[in-house]
Design goal:
- The structure holds 2 protein chains of 2 kinds.
- Chain A is an alpha+beta fold.
- Helices cover 30% and strands 35% of the residues of chain A.
- In chain A, α2 runs parallel beside α4 and α4 runs parallel beside α5.
- In chain B, α5 runs antiparallel to α6 and α6 runs parallel beside α9.
- Chain B has one domain.
- Chain B is globular and about 65 Å long.
- Classes of the chains: A alpha+beta, B mainly alpha.
- At the A-B interface, α1, β1, α2 and α3 of A face α2, α3, α5, β1 and α7 of B.
- The structure holds iron/sulfur cluster.
- Iron/sulfur cluster binds next to α11 of chain B.
Chain lengths: 228, 293
């Protein structure tokens, strides 16, 4: 967390958790997908569901998927703008269970070039967010760093090979987590990095044995993002 | 980010640097930002606060029509010159209303720490700057102090109404503003912490019960109590009145109270004021109006 998340962000009201946080969850979805979103199934949970509409949570999520920033004065018009941008979306309610943060949304996204992504994001206060689930496995990251997410078979050696490749490429890992569905099943590594991971490294990761899916959240401006 | 007042006070003693500098250095080290970039960003926040204060339009109502004109009324009353609270306090109240009204009307504001509580810190800082002719530089420093206090509350408890009720939003904002004020008056870390503790104590247990789930009622007017309470906590501190419960423990109490709060009073828009017959009626009216559209 940064100081300017507390004094800040500059944002369009009325709710940092329900409006700004929702824009950021949408934004994270777009960045994780790595390509413009064509289709989005949005499901609201808990307080997002109970009071989301009045706070413009629905509009904010769509605005985020369109790549708008939290202080964009067009947020209230995002549904209209989505139609122009060729993004079709649906919004409904969901119960993600008691363990889910009350301000959570699940997004099922399809990108312009066919890539798919399913994620759950939570707005945890003051406009800050946490991605809590990605393609079926639990994760926990903020999207404040360039973030690499690797789904792999839960077998020995993967972690070492991935981290070696990163360090050979001059990329420093700030934080790292490992999670798995069950022993010997699918596992997920989340690596929050100090540097952007270049396209070439992503391609090599994807080609490694036992790697199921490589997802990368880049902080670069839209046009410069790698396409996994 | 500092996670306790105890460590902040200890650092002030050891390093003998002003509070705002300690807070900035820690943040920059953690986030790999240069001191000057950080300063510019904070300056931008203060500039945006001035803007939101200027941009208020008394003719604009929120989508629901429930709020929007409060600050206009306060302005008319204040400038007529017969307020009970006096010129300074009534101006602070007007500003808190202005900014909170603008937020409800989907205007651009600075969350501090949240959008619902965005009127508290700027109302206090803009008004003290005007009254005492304080240069921008010092106000930006005070914003660092406010941010540092918010950071401690976020680390030990929460800044989300959905998790901790309104004590975590307007309560936290009030603590931040109180500490910032005392630091502006030359207070040391201990006094700054004391002011934050006094402000927070007075708002412990505050429910988050927005009518129809909208950040409008009671949020807009609660920004006023956040600001006024900050000023009284700062004045009590400058008078030498100490919180008997240490500031970190006050925040810990806030966390446990938040955990014990029923979900109905944690931003779900169902309990507390939001559960009153009038609020239920308002909610139904809004729903019906939406369906008509
Ligand atoms: S009542 Fe709830 S929504 Fe309103 S300001 Fe307080 S915490 Fe925020």
């Amino acid at each position: 967390m940064k100081l300017t998340d507390i004094i800040g962000p500059v944002m369009v009201g009325p709710s940092s958790s329900h409006t700004a946080g929702a824009v950021r969850i949408g934004n994270a979805g777009r960045r994780l997908l790595g390509q413009p979103v064509r289709e989005a199934r949005i499901s609201l949970h808990g307080s997002f569901l109970a009071t989301g509409r009045g706070h413009g949570t629905d509009k904010a999520l769509v605005a985020g998927l369109l790549g708008m920033a939290v202080d964009d004065r067009r947020i209230p018009d995002s549904f209209e703008l989505a139609r122009h941008a060729g993004l079709s979306f649906s919004i409904d309610g969901i119960d993600l269970g008691d363990a889910a943060h009350p301000n959570s949304a699940r997004l099922i996204l399809t990108g312009e070039r066919g890539r798919k992504l399913e994620m759950v994001g939570a707005s945890i206060g003051g406009g800050r967010i946490c991605i809590t689930e990605l393609d079926g496995l639990p994760v926990n990251f903020s999207g404040d760093f360039p973030t690499l997410i690797v789904h792999n078979e839960d077998l020995p050696g993967h972690v070492a090979r991935v981290t070696t490749l990163l360090s050979d490429s001059g990329i420093n890992i700030a934080y790292m987590q490992l999670n798995r569905a069950h022993r010997g099943g699918q596992a997920v590594m989340v690596l929050e990095c100090d540097q952007e991971v270049p396209q070439e490294v992503l391609t090599r990761l994807q080609a490694m044995d036992g790697i199921v899916k490589v997802t990368f959240l880049s902080l670069l401006p839209e046009g410069e993002m790698s396409d996994v | 980010m500092y996670d306790s007042f105890a460590r902040l006070c200890a650092d002030e003693r050891e390093k003998n640097r002003p509070l705002w500098e300690l807070i900035r250095s820690e943040d920059c080290a953690e986030n790999g930002q240069s001191l000057s970039d950080s300063w510019q960003e904070m300056e931008r926040m203060y500039a945006a606060m001035k803007e939101e204060d200027r941009d208020y339009d008394p003719g604009r109502l929120s989508n629901s029509g429930l709020v929007g004109d409060e600050a206009g009324r306060m302005h008319a009353y204040r400038t007529a010159g017969s307020t009970i609270s006096g010129p300074f306090m009534s101006l602070v109240m007007e500003r808190a209303l202005k900014i909170a009204d603008s937020n409800a009307c989907m205007q651009r504001i600075v969350a501090s720490p949240t959008a619902g509580s965005c009127g508290v810190v700027p109302a206090v800082l803009l008004s003290i700057q005007e009254a005492r002719d304080i240069p921008d530089r010092q106000i930006v420093q005070a914003l660092y102090v406010a941010g540092g206090i918010g950071g401690i509350i976020a680390s030990r408890a929460t800044l989300a109404g959905a998790e901790g009720g309104c004590q975590a939003e307007v309560g936290a904002a009030s603590a931040m503003a109180a500490g910032a004020l005392v630091s502006l008056m030359g207070g040391r870390a201990q006094q700054t912490a004391n002011a934050a503790a006094l402000a927070l104590k007075n708002l412990l247990g505050l429910a988050c019960d927005p009518v129809a789930g909208l950040v409008e009622v009671p949020c807009v007017k609660r920004n006023v109590i956040g600001a006024v309470n900050a000023i009284s906590a700062a004045d009590m501190t400058m008078a030498g009145i100490a919180s008997r419960i240490p500031p970190d423990e006050v925040i810990d109490a806030m966390r446990t109270i938040g955990k014990r709060m029923d979900p109905g009073i944690r931003e779900t828009g169902t309990g507390g004021l939001a559960g009153t017959p009038t609020a239920v009626r308002i909610r139904e009216q809004i729903r019906a109006a939406k369906q008509e559209k």
